[in-house]
Design brief:
With 260 residues, the protein is an alpha/beta fold. The protein is 30% helix and 29% strand. It has 8 helices and 12 strands. The strands form 2 sheets. The chain has an 8-stranded mixed beta sheet with strand order 6-7-8-3-9-10-11-12, sandwiched between helices. A 4-stranded antiparallel beta sheet has the order 2-1-4-5, with helices on one face. Helix 3 (100-110) packs parallel to helix 5.
C-alpha cells in the first residue's frame, strides 16, 4: 500500500513561492487503475513525480509498503526508482538510433540481467503490449501509438510494482489513446497503475478510482468499480472529511474499500 500523509510541496520562483500541494493525504492499494484528474497547475503531475521519486516534498510523509521514505538517502531513492516504479511520459523518449529491442534491452543490461536471456525477456515484454513483431524496427518506423506502447514495454521490463503514466495519451489521436489505456487497464489487474490526465471521460471510463485535484488540494475522490460505481470516497472541503461510501443492495464491500 502507498500512503501519503499531510504532504505539501512548494516551488520558489523569482517573484513568489507557489504551493503545488497543500496537505494532501491518500491511501492507495497495491493494484488497480488510479487516475489523478485535474487541470494544468492542479498539482497532479507534482504528486505523480513525488510518488515516482522524481521530485521531493517539503512537508508530510510518503510510506511505501509500511516503509517511510522520510530518511531515504540517495541510494535508497535510486533503488526505488530502478526496481519499484516504471514511468511512462507523454513524450516517448526513445533512443532514435536504437532498435525497439535495444531500447528495451538496455535497461536489462544496466541491471545485469543474464545476457543469454535478454532476447527472450524482450520478446515477452513486447507480447504484453501487442508488438511482438517490432523488435528489429527503429523508432522512426513506428506510429505515435506504437512508440508509446514501446515506452510502456520499457517501463515494464524492470517488473515494477507501480506504473506511473503522465498524460500518456496527450500526443495521440483518440483511437491510439484508447489502445494505450486498454493496455494500462489490463496491466492494472496485477499492478498499481497511476495515471495523470485532464480528460474526465477517460478518467471515468478507465479508472477504478478517480482522485481530482485543484490548486494543490484533493477536491474529489471516488471509486469507479463494479458495485460502487461513481460513489464518493471523500468529499474534501479544506480539512473536513466526510466518508459517504454507498454500496447497492446485494453487493459486498471489497477489501479495498474496507481497508480504506
Amino acid at each position: 500500500m502507498l500512503v501519503i500523509k499531510n504532504m505539501s510541496k512548494y516551488y520558489n520562483t523569482a517573484r513568489q513561492t507557489v504551493q503545488a500541494l497543500k496537505n494532501v493525504s491518500l491511501k492507495i492499494d497495491d493494484k488497480g487503475f488510479v487516475v489523478l484528474l485535474g487541470k494544468s497547475g492542479s498539482g497532479k503531475s507534482t504528486l505523480l513525480n513525488i510518488i515516482g521519486g522524481l521530485d521531493n516534498f517539503d512537508c508530510g510523509e510518503l510510506i511505501i509498503n509500511n516503509t517511510s521514505t522520510k530518511h531515504f538517502k540517495g541510494n535508497d531513492w535510486d533503488s526505488y526508482r530502478n526496481s519499484y516504479v516504471g514511468v511512462v511520459f507523454q513524450e516517448f523518449y526513445l533512443i532514435e538510433d536504437f532498435t525497439v529491442g535495444k531500447n528495451i534491452s538496455i535497461a536489462l543490461e544496466l541491471q545485469g540481467y543474464p545476457k543469454d536471456k535478454i532476447d527472450e525477456k524482450v520478446i515477452d515484454i513486447l507480447n504484453q503490449v501487442d508488438l511482438c513483431d517490432y523488435k528489429d524496427k527503429l523508432p522512426n518506423q513506428l506510429s505515435g501509438g506504437q512508440k508509446q506502447r514501446i515506452a510502456i514495454a520499457r517501463a515494464l521490463v524492470k517488473e515494477p510494482k507501480i506504473i506511473l503514466a503522465d498524460e500518456p495519451t496527450g500526443n495521440l489521436d483518440l483511437e491510439n489513446g484508447r489502445l494505450i489505456l486498454d493496455i494500462l487497464k489490463r496491466l492494472s489487474k496485477n499492478k498499481l497503475v497511476i495515471m495523470v490526465t485532464h480528460d474526465i471521460d477517460f478518467a471515468n471510463k478507465y479508472g477504478d478510482r478517480v482522485i481530482e485535484l485543484k490548486d494543490g488540494l484533493v477536491i474529489n475522490d471516488y471509486l469507479n468499480i463494479e458495485g460502487v460505481n461513481n460513489q464518493t470516497i471523500y468529499d474534501v472541503d479544506n480539512k473536513d472529511y466526510k466518508k459517504i461510501i454507498k454500496v447497492p443492495k446485494g453487493e459486498k464491500l471489497s477489501l479495498y474499500t474496507i481497508n480504506y
